[in-house]
Design goal:
seven-stranded antiparallel sheet, 222 residues
Length: 222
């Protein structure tokens, strides 16, 4: 099939866009409101956009509590959502009143951050402490009066990693079992069994050809 994405005339039961762009990392965003109440919510339009400096982004549909809090305070954290925390992550997505602390709602503990005020999820194996760099409003849906998305860019100023998942100087991502969003109500999970390595090809001296490096990763970035 081939369809006009602007008109969304795909003829399917549900829009397939998010089922095709996946898996998408989950940004489990924690903020603090002007009233001092903590807010926690997962965002599937999320990813790293730079490593020097380290920067993250997530996109909010409309003006949700997370966006309001970040624009008011300029700070947030992103905790890693994992297989063990899947139900808590899902519960924290509930559209409850701003006065509700989703940490308590989801049965989670809030751990203090080192460089920003919003806490991280204590049970998560990794978290990023961020300061707002910029927000970017996206176009509203074509022909719709509904609000569009706003992209939030944050500079990572602190990183927490559970030492139990560091071996030989490398983070064991598969052991953390991070989950990711697919389409509809579907998710995926990274495990040691689902991971694989590919060495980057080496270009010839004249830049006209390249050769693959066989074998497992040798620990050298090329």
């Amino acid at each position: 099939m081939h369809y006009d994405a602007t008109g969304r005339n795909h003829g399917l039961r549900h829009d397939p866009f998010k089922a095709l762009v996946g898996p998408r990392p989950i940004g489990w965003v924690s903020t603090i409101g002007a009233d001092g109440i903590a807010n926690l919510a997962p965002y599937s339009f999320f990813n790293a956009v730079s490593d020097r400096p380290p920067m993250l982004m997530f996109s909010s549909a409309g003006t949700k509590d997370s966006l309001r809090n970040i624009e008011a305070t300029g700070e947030f954290t992103c905790s890693l959502a994992t297989w063990d925390l899947r139900d808590a992550m899902n519960m924290s997505s509930a559209a409850v009143a701003p006065s509700v602390d989703e940490f308590g709602l989801a049965g989670l503990k809030a751990a203090p951050s080192h460089f920003v005020k919003p806490p991280r999820v204590a049970e998560a194996p990794a978290a990023f402490e961020c300061r707002l760099w910029k927000t970017l409003p996206l176009p509203a849906p074509h022909g719709s009066k509904a609000p569009g998305y706003t992209v939030v860019f944050g500079t990572v100023v602190g990183i927490y990693i559970d030492d139990a998942f560091i071996h030989d100087g490398l983070v064991q991502t598969g052991q953390m079992r991070p989950i990711a969003r697919l389409g509809y109500m579907d998710y995926s999970v990274v495990t040691p069994e689902s991971m694989f390595s590919l060495n980057r090809p080496i270009a010839s001296d004249d830049g006209q050809a390249a050769a693959l490096v066989p074998g497992p990763w040798d620990g050298v970035y090329r």
